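The records we work with from here on pair a chain with its fold. Here is one such record, which you should read through line by line:
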Amino acid sequence: MLVALLLILTLSNAVKINGEEGGQCDYKLTLEPRPHSVSITEFGAVGDGKTLNTIAFQNAIFYLKSFSDKGGAQLYVPPGRWLTGSFNLTSHLTLFLEKGAVILGSQDPSHWEVVEPLPSYGRGIELPGRRYRSLINAYMLHDVVITGDNGTIDGQGSVWWDWYSYHSLNYSRPHLVEFVASEYVVVSNLTFLNAPAYNIHPVYCSNVHVQNVSVSAPPESPHTVGIVPDSSDNVCIEDCIINMGYDAIALKSGWDEYGIAYGRPTTDVHIRRVHLQSSSGSSLAFGSEMSGGISNVHVEHVHLYNSFSGIEFRTTKGRGGYIKRIIISDVEMENIYLALSATGECGSHPDDKYDPTALPVLDHITLQDVIGANITIAGHFTGIQESPFTSICLSNVSLSINSGSPTSWVCSNVFGFSESVFPEPCPDLKSSYSNSSSACFSLLDLNGKAAAL
């Protein structure tokens, strides 16, 4: 089934999603062929890695926009190294990268447009004010596919990392691919390299499917992140390999008062069969920008390795919002310093206008069927005194702690339940499952199917 789906996607078809019971990745993709196709070379592009092709991409997509009401179209990128600045996509479009095709992000910042910040953040993430537009952008679009035969999108981010580290940027760094307020989006069968910041950033989107992509940046690349579902719903991420400097996958939903005011959560997210590695951050992170809320997330069959943190929930006073109704199962970890973490003291604020009494809620988090080897600290759960973390449920967790561990568990302002957990968790998490009744979130609660607990 998977092979057939990938084959269909490589034929660059339109995407529609038909709902059925189960996680988001179990929904069927109904794909319709694009009746029109052009090559980027028809618009004067030169794939020598030196010629700037921004105008060629812009002109090609402007031309293909005329087919949006005629079944859509495909923009074909043949083998070569295609240097470009930022450009925008259009609805009912497939961007197809052939094997050997590499889209290269320009290292000249003047080739990246400067745009207003996202309204749920109120400013650039890294600096006050505006931000650089991402390399490939979709704004208020419908039915967009970025796929290929393992073509590559390389952000050539090393110059951005240096500028960031030396505090020489005037605006926040760009991402590789960003979808804003778009729906029915597919990203598949590609390699993403060396993003200036994030690689794939769907924000304010619905029905997003990311499948069979490889994402990487060097361990020393500062705050580079793989896939970031942000104030988006009905998201599937599956069959991906992600190795990043900071977080591999990070779920977000806005920053303090701006995220609260915007009020769009990240919800109904399904992540499965992924291999995640993060050098200085977390393989799988929630927050810390989560002021619009994060809920109804199902993560299963994941491999986390060679990372500082395995799974981490992050928030702080002033965020408001919530992280709740999360179930994570069938997790294999190896060579992780901190396996499981939830902290109420993480992240900065966009400005001094945030409300320090806006307390986040972290509730109904289930972690089950987790094994780990060469773990230094099993768990670090530090909630907020005025808003403790509640219904943290651990089941069938076995972590092999290395000899250098200062302590296995650290807990404060957290309440939960556990069953078959090794090493033995702290008392705040040791209430028996038999007393948990409905306090522990399960797959039965998530989608009405048979409960996993």
Observations:
- The first helix runs from residue 2 to 10.
